[in-house]
Amino acid sequence: MSQKKYTIINTPVHNIDGIAKVTGRATYAFDVTLPGMLYGKILRSPHPHARIISIDTSKAEQFPGVRGVATGKDTLGIKQGIWRRYEELCDEQILPLEKVRYIGEPVAAVAAVTEEIAEKALDLIDVEYEVLPAVYEPLEAIKKEAPTIHEGVERNINVTRHIEWGDVDEAFEEADYIREDWFKCSGQHHMCMETRCAVSSFTPEGKLTVYTGTQSAYYHQGLLAGVLGLREGDVRVIAPYTGGGFGGKFELDAAQFCSAVLSMKLYKPVKIVFTREEDFIASKRRTPMFYYVRTGVKKDGTFCARESRMFSNGGAYTGMGATALYLTGFFHSFPYKWKGYRYDGYRVYTNTMPSTSMRGFGAPQGMFCSETQIDWICADLGLDPYEVRRKNGHTPGYEVPGQAFIGSCGLEECINEIEKWAKAKGKLPANRGIGISACGFMTGGIFNWFDTPYSFSSAVVTINVDGTVELYVGCQDIGQGSNTTMAIIAAETLGVKIEDIKVHSGDTDHCPADLGAWGSRQTLMTGNAVKMACEDAKKQLLEFAYAEMGINIVYDLDIKDRWVHIVARPERGMKYEDLVKKALRGKDGQRIMGRGYYTPHRKGMISPAYSYMMQAVDAEIDPETGKIKIHEVMTAHDCGQPINPLGLVGQLEGAASMALGYAYLEDMPFEDGKLMNPNLVDYKVIRSTEMPPSPSIEVDTYEQEGPYGAKEAGEGLTNPTAAALDNAVFHALGLQIKELPITPERIRKALAEKKAQEAQK
Amino acid sequence: MINDFHYLKPASVKEALAMYAEHDDCKIICGGQSLLIVLRQGMLAPEYLIDIKHLDELSYIKFDDKDGLRLGATTTHREIEKSDVVAKKYPALVAMEGKLASIQTRNWGTIGGNLAHADPAGDPGPVLIALKAEIKYGNSKGDKTVPLDEFFVDYFETKMEHGDLVLEVHVPAPEPKSGCAYQKFNLLDSDMGIVAAAASVALNADGTCKDARIVLGNAGPTPLRVTKAEDLLKGKKLDDKLFEEAGKIASEEAQPVADIHASEEHRRHVLGVLTKRMLKKAFEEAQKAA
Amino acid sequence: MEKQVLRFKVNGDEYEIFIHPKTLLVEAIRDHLGLTGTKRGCDTVSCGACTVMVNGFSVKSCSVLAIQCQGMEITTVEGLEKNGKLSPVQKAFLDNGAFQCGFCTPGMLISSTTFINELNGKVPSDMEIREGIEGNVCRCTGYNSIVRAIDAVAQGKYKEE
């Protein structure tokens, strides 16, 4: 339950970057132009797997207007990766020296006075390749006779992950019914509106400045320093605004790396912008997964045991895939209590574009398989899917054995809300069904694979003489509104107005290190750091207030709406602005400065807190063509205390659109290692006309670990949708579709199979 | 990256045709909604580009009860979509235009450019053929008019030769007791059809089928007429069974090509479904029509 | 291949620039005039991030040759404010949280504005609004907040200041 009345929290607040964004003033890396800037273009491998015999850049270098060409030989040849803690997982040389491992992998980069000249010069680079046999699917790549993609990596197994609790075999013994299914989950592209892009500027004093879209300026600072042989402090990453991220912009990309390498070679600023096609073929993607799921339940629907094996298509490099491998297996158990649970995940290298984190971080795949199978089990046993979910669902205070502690949990309320909503719809017409799916998600990861000695989040706040507040944070606003969230938390804590707060973020020279925007971590982690910093500053102010107001020290003082007052007698007080001036004098002119940080401790293996939700999709299928029409997507949601309802609704609706796309539209088909739809004509992103109404209800919970009781919102909701839609198709037509996306053709095929089976009977 | 070209801006159609005749390596640009993509991909790199977008003499919508509809080549899709007279007389044409790509494309793209591009997945082709449209094109020596279903000859290829320019589309006045319908099967509302079907039906006074046309989109190298199915319907009292049968024939006659969006089999199947549905819709409209 | 003079009006200001005929309108606006509010998001006339008004009509400026806009009037996102006051559509976007990363927003605002302008006071249906912005991809919001913003303007809840 919400414990306090707040002044600003939970009231709709305009995005503090809104005016800049609706007037075209917001400047993205894409818009940055520096004096003397050159334009870079990247030459990419046409082969899925080949040894680089030689690269001759001489003709390109002599082409008028070209200023320089870089290949792997111009780099330190460091194999990099974001899993810095484990050397074997740092496996990617951007501009490789020996081998290319996927179509589109960079092999050289040109800097020229115009983009057009740079592009023409690419044709003048001669690369001699020895083409090697390639393999594209994990179940092929894992075979003994498959070609080796990384030397020394047996059977192309990049990482494995085992999760187990309870006595799984014994728990299966207790089951009355066991069901097994194989699933295939597709890839998905982040499809950020701003393609990967960077402007790098290296100056003779040895400083590198990189303007880029990023989810973590700090990661990019660290990664660039590592791979370029610079000190971290000599690399400045600036991300003024970022045109979307969704999990795809916190690893080092070729725009950043190649522009930096060229700039260091030429001492000129270099800008590289990926075309949409480059962004599609040579960035990264959601991890495609093959799941085998075996689940045992009792007759009454009590869950006993689950045993799953998963093979993921890792593509050519590790990226964030190792984390996705763990999280998919963990969230595959969610949000239920299993007596015995066992998961074995294998991330397999293939000669395709690398796969990585994407909104949901492996959970959408794991939950698609879980939540559909649960509905089928309910149908097999004649059980009520709402009741079964309630019976087995997480509850507050539950411990996932050896993995996680559940604090607040509003799952049951969410299930109840959706049940009420669905039942109110009454009987639906033919070919139309409602599918449901429950889920939960983390609020920030307790993972330090980056091996940083910094706190996970930090904040610094200073108060100016006029009472305005400078808030320095390292969290990254990629559109999700974290700058606004932090401003709200700061204003609430300090007792000032939102317009008093100036948020400084996205610049490693001026902002404290923070792991950035991934794993739904910023509201809780940076939010706690901001709250702590503001409490620190406020305490310093109130010390002067006690002295100034001369009140009995047993009374509590507080600030609200710029009014410093006695809590018990709010009319007695003084203006905040006056207090600030007095406090400055009292401190011999030193600015009031507060510091805060957050690093999780003793919170299990995964996350300090978990959000919960239940979603229903109301869909209609044209049985003759297989085409799906989605009427509505309804969500009941527990994110603890909402901070900004306006931002929250946007996050949930956005998640629903991306997750619907994953469910029935978006796919990344490859043929011989070549992506077949590397453009927005053939890659289908949901549009306004396809997007159904997507209302949501917040259930009331309070999370002790979160700032003002807040938890995750916006990433977790990409998890339930594919299953909910698939379940809608199941309830509408009786089809069990085990492969994403749910295309018209798959529906028709399943219908035909069903008819054939029924005819046999 | 677009290759360099010389830009020519004629003051009249006559001048445009003269320029076209003069330069061998030359393309016409009007709205450029398709052409610029092709130029950017480097699939075409003409030395000269003649811009006819501004030629107002080719921008018109004229209707006459006897003569029917005349659309100038540089008329934009949006102008057709918004035209009251077209909406009244040829609702299927307006409905088709309303689903053609996006508003932005319809605002700049033109009917002549679309037909000249001859994409078999293009929307206007099937509907206009179902409406028995003819197309006028010409060069510096003169012009000719051909039925639109003879105009398209292959993927992105028309009867026009170098120097020929689309001038006008003519749609005959609607027959009494006739109806027309078009639908595409796609994943996004604004997409081109994975496949599409247009149908038109005209009824005799006794309610039997006087004439029918079935035209498939993206079911072969050009918009594809299914005359075998049309013949099946003519002279008969139309019903669901006949529509089903016509759909089956359309499905068999189609020559769709598989790609990542659908297999050949699925395309054939959906073409059958769409044909059946559009015939029924056209028939119902014909029954309602004056 | 010879450069040509393009005279046109952008956001009310007269410009005269010297361009290659292959210069796209979006390039003229961004690279020649430095109006970087207008974005580019694809090369296939798909995403709508580059949408601007040409003589009052929305077009995708990546699929229009700049030279074809000789003598025309262009409005970009930078031209929507009047004397430092946000337009009704801009205000409605703010109030409804109709943007997140903001990269599609300039094009989305232009499409929304032309949609409102073409209504002539008629109140549109939900689907009509959706069709009005169908040519613009937004990867963040799921569009519904944008639809609410446009609806609010169409309902007359915002007045031009």
Helix and strand topology:
The complex is a heterotrimer of chains A (761), B (290) and C (161).
Chain A: H1 18-22, E1 38-44, E2 50-56, H2 58-62, E3 66-71, E4 99-100, E5 106-112, H3 115-122, E6 126-131, H4 138-141, E7 157-165, H5 168-173, E8 177-185, E9 188-189, E10 197-203, E11 207-212, H6 217-228, E12 235-238, H7 254-266, E13 270-273, H8 276-281, E14 285-286, E15 289-297, E16 303-315, H9 321-331, E17 340-349, E18 355-356, H10 363-381, H11 385-392, E19 399-400, E20 404-405, H12 411-424, E21 432-442, E22 457-463, E23 469-473, H13 482-494, E24 501-504, H14 522-549, E25 557-560, E26 563-566, E27 573-575, H15 576-586, E28 592-598, E29 610-621, E30 628-638, H16 645-664, E31 670-671, E32 674-675, E33 696-698, H17 721-733, H18 744-760
Parallel strand pairs in A: 1-13, 11-12, 14-18, 16-17, 23-24, 30-33
Antiparallel strand pairs in A: 1-5, 2-4, 2-6, 3-5, 7-17, 8-15, 9-14, 10-11, 10-13, 15-16, 19-20, 21-29, 22-23, 22-28, 25-26, 26-27, 29-30, 31-32
Helix pairs in contact in A: 9-10, 10-17, 13-14, 14-15, 16-17
Chain B: E1 6-8, H1 13-22, E2 26-29, H2 35-40, E3 48-51, E4 61-64, E5 68-72, H3 77-82, H4 84-89, H5 91-98, H6 103-108, H7 111-117, H8 124-130, E6 134-139, E7 142-147, H9 148-151, E8 152-154, E9 157-158, E10 165-171, E11 178-185, E12 195-203, E13 209-217, E14 224-225, H10 227-233, H11 240-253, H12 264-288
Parallel strand pairs in B: 1-3, 2-3
Antiparallel strand pairs in B: 4-5, 5-10, 6-7, 6-10, 8-9, 11-12, 12-13, 13-14
Chain C: E1 4-10, E2 13-19, H1 25-32, E3 51-54, E4 57-60, E5 73-75, H2 88-96, H3 105-119, H4 126-132, H5 144-154
Parallel strand pairs in C: 1-5
Antiparallel strand pairs in C: 1-2, 3-4, 3-5
Helix pairs in contact in C: 2-5
